[in-house]
Amino acid sequence: MRFGPGFAIRIPPMDFDIVIVGAGLVGASFAMALRGAGLKLALVEAHSPAPVDHGWDSRVYAISPASVAFLDGLGAWTRLDRARLNPVHEMQVYGDSAGAQLQLSAYESGVSELAWTVESRRLQSVLWLALEHQHNLELLCPDRCESVVLGDDAAEVTLAGGRALRAKLLVAADGRHSWVRQAAGIAAQDKPYGQMGVVANFTCAKEHHDTAYQWFRDDGVLAYLPLPGRRMSIVWSTPDEHAAALLELSPDEFCARVEEAGKGTLGKLELLTPAAQFPLTRQHAARLVAPRIALIGDAGHVLHPLAGQGVNLGFGDAAVLARVLLQRELFRDPGEIRLLRRYERARAEDILALAWVTDGLHKLFAAHGGAVGKLRNTGLNLTNALPVLKNLLVRRALG
Ligand SMILES: Cc1cc2nc3c(=O)[nH]c(=O)nc-3n(C[C@H](O)[C@H](O)[C@H](O)COP(=O)(O)OP(=O)(O)OC[C@H]3O[C@@H](n4cnc5c(N)ncnc54)[C@H](O)[C@@H]3O)c2cc1C
């Protein structure tokens, strides 16, 4: 049919119960958690997932047992290739003065693992494959949101591809620069740390014995995460200039620098994946919910990676929001603000506690010399000597 000038065609919006924006690990797992909810879902994602080959992904996460339980409940954990997963049985943390250290052990804490290390791309791919077959879900990818109108009864979203979607609830899982959060006018405090997270994978001459290491140093925090075989992954959170200098080194020089910074603990290192860097900020949205909107994952909070808890916190959001929506008994409307506030209240303590701990540790170790220096190293040793405090720390980290 042809229309002359002056005719505007308005395609009626497609109706959903929930539109989720962003299919990163958090948005994808949230969509999966609602597979049996009897709700009609749409998931909008700007980028198709990167293909998985045999190469190693330099984005490696330490996944807490609580997150493993969540992913297992979705059927995603068992679909991961076991040969690419590594348990963390021990953690050794070193301060910046000789002898200051803290050892955490799964055995002493009465748990089977402190965490598992997982490559981001592999987990993403397992979630994506499951979503492609999810009956109550429409995957809209690649596409991105261009405008949103929040009404009393629904949120209406227009996508760059021209489609219009209407939903009772719009869930922002679109990461730290969340477009949805900004469009909804939810303020977020953004505090750049002036640091980069430098990541890379290595083969190592010595066994890691399923131990993760962390060194608080003058030039930031260096973490070694064990990977299967004699391999490991690093996150070196370090000032921008130092990160730039590290990335300019030749592969041999970079290996020597990481080896020396880690006190030769795993012997000679060889580069498995080239170094990459990510800017580090702390971000905290003023609210996790607003009428017709809920934020999950980095859209709601971004942490310093020194505690390795960012994506774990996001999985916690996804699990709790899904549970609130599944148990909505009296509320037929999944975007009802009283329901959304249950989610916000349930997440407040975890988010605040982790933001406080990671930011506090960062500040404590960023201050150079003097009384603060003594205090932090004494603190590590004291914590190491107090089994009750250590167990409390481990319980918190396990989620
Ligand atoms: C160096 C480093 C190391 C880290 N290590 C750990 C660790 O060991 N353990 C841990 O728990 N956490 C770690 N983190 C934190 C972790 O990376 C994040 O918390 C996690 O990736 C957030 O996931 P997300 O799904 O919320 O957001 P993202 O992964 O940012 O996903 C957002 C998705 O939304 C899509 N999107 C964005 N805008 C739009 C739009 N307008 N329309 C459609 N789609 C859109 C994007 O394409 C993307 O796929 C680390 C972070 C850094 C920087």
Written description of the protein model:
- With 399 residues, this protein is of the alpha+beta class.
- It has a single domain (14-49, 57-398), classed as 3-Layer(bba) Sandwich (FAD/NAD(P)-binding domain).
- It is built from 10 helices and 19 strands.
- The protein has helices spanning 25-33, 65-73, 120-132, 179-183, 240-248, 251-261, 310-326, 337-366, 370-385, 387-398, and strands at residues 14-21, 41-44, 60-63, 86-88, 90-94, 101-105, 115-119, 137-140, 145-150, 155-159, 164-172, 188-204, 211-217, 220-227, 231-239, 269-285, 289-290, 293-295, 301-302.
- The strands form 3 sheets. Strands 1, 2, 8, 9, 10, 11, 17 and 18 form an 8-stranded mixed beta sheet that branches. It has an 8-stranded mixed beta sheet with strand order 6-5-13-14-15-12-16-19, sandwiched between helices.
- Strand 14 and strand 15 form a beta hairpin.
- The chain is globular.
- Mean pLDDT is 89; it is low at 1-6.
- Flavin-adenine dinucleotide binds at residues 21-27, 44-47, 61-62, 144-145, 173-175, 179, 197, 199, 235, 278, 297-298, 305, 308-312, 314.
